């Protein structure tokens, strides 16, 4: 396996996505819906305009500024759920869809290994997700500037990167599931259950022990978003690193299990483990 063979499959798969009417229509609908949800959050929230102190959903805000616009965007639960389901379902169609339309057989006829084919397909789907996010949050930033806000462009780009990495974990979970079953309906149903279950898994884990909270993708995402601004912490970090009142909070020392480093480590594992398991399964399965 070489980088050039992965890049070759990636390029072929990306062109097929671009030419696929189903993919284009799906991406257009998802982009439209997510942009409207994002614009609505920008329009109705007071925090985005700097008129509210204290807590906002899972975040604690030390002071208010226009850059706190990004925790607000991360707190739009409907938007995040929609994006998570989209990313997981997109990943779920990787292998099972390739079997049905014959693209896997075509790609394996090329002088490349199965590993290159698998990774090329995964990267192509991650690129589709990243494109949707760039459009949605790019348009939201433009709308924010038009509304009189001045969020940092650098922070905006970093925020998009954080969301891409967050959703990458769901894409590869979907890909791993697509290597297990042959029926598209079964794989997609399992992907939806997995997407919702992963978002909710942090609650029972935190009840067992606070040290397990950052195993869940939701708290991982919130912690990484909070790290973009030193005036923002998650409620989890405040609870285990300080104290809070209705509108004020203090953070003395955040333990490692509630830190940004722990979140980065957990996020890396959420990407690597499903990718490796899916790759092993794909190398052993029958693609016909």
UniProtKB/TrEMBL annotation:
Keywords: Membrane, Transmembrane, Transmembrane helix. The chain crosses the membrane at residues 24-42, 68-96, 117-139, 159-180, 187-207, 256-280. GO terms for cellular component: plasma membrane. Coiled coil: none annotated. Pfam families: ABC2_membrane_2. This is ABC transporter permease. It comes from Halovivax cerinus.
């Amino acid at each position: 396996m070489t980088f050039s063979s992965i890049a070759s499959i990636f390029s072929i798969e990306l062109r097929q996505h671009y030419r696929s009417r189903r993919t284009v229509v799906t991406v257009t609908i998802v982009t439209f819906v997510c942009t409207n949800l994002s614009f609505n959050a920008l329009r109705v929230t007071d925090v985005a305009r700097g008129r509210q102190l204290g807590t906002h959903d899972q975040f604690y805000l030390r002071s208010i500024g226009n850059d706190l616009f990004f925790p607000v965007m991360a707190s739009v639960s409907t938007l995040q759920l929609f994006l998570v389901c989209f990313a997981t379902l997109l990943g779920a169609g990787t292998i099972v869809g390739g079997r049905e339309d014959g693209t896997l057989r075509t790609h394996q006829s090329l002088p490349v290994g199965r590993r290159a084919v698998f990774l090329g397909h995964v990267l192509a789907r991650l690129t589709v997700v990243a494109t949707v996010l760039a459009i949605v949050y790019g348009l939201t930033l433009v709308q924010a500037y038009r509304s009189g806000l001045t969020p940092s462009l650098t922070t905006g780009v970093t925020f998009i990167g954080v969301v891409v990495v967050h959703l990458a974990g769901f894409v590869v979970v979907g890909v791993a599931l697509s290597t297990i079953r042959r029926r598209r309906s079964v794989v997609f149903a399992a992907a939806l259950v997995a997407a919702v279950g992963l978002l909710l898994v942090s609650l029972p884990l935190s009840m067992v022990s606070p040290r397990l909270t950052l195993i869940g993708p939701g708290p991982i995402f919130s912690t990484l978003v909070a790290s973009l601004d030193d005036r923002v912490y998650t409620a989890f970090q405040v609870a285990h690193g300080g104290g809070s009142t209705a509108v004020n909070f203090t953070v003395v020392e955040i333990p490692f299990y509630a830190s940004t480093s722990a979140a980065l480590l957990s996020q890396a594992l959420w990407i690597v483990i499903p990718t490796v398991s899916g790759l092993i399964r794909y190398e052993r399965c029958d693609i016909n």
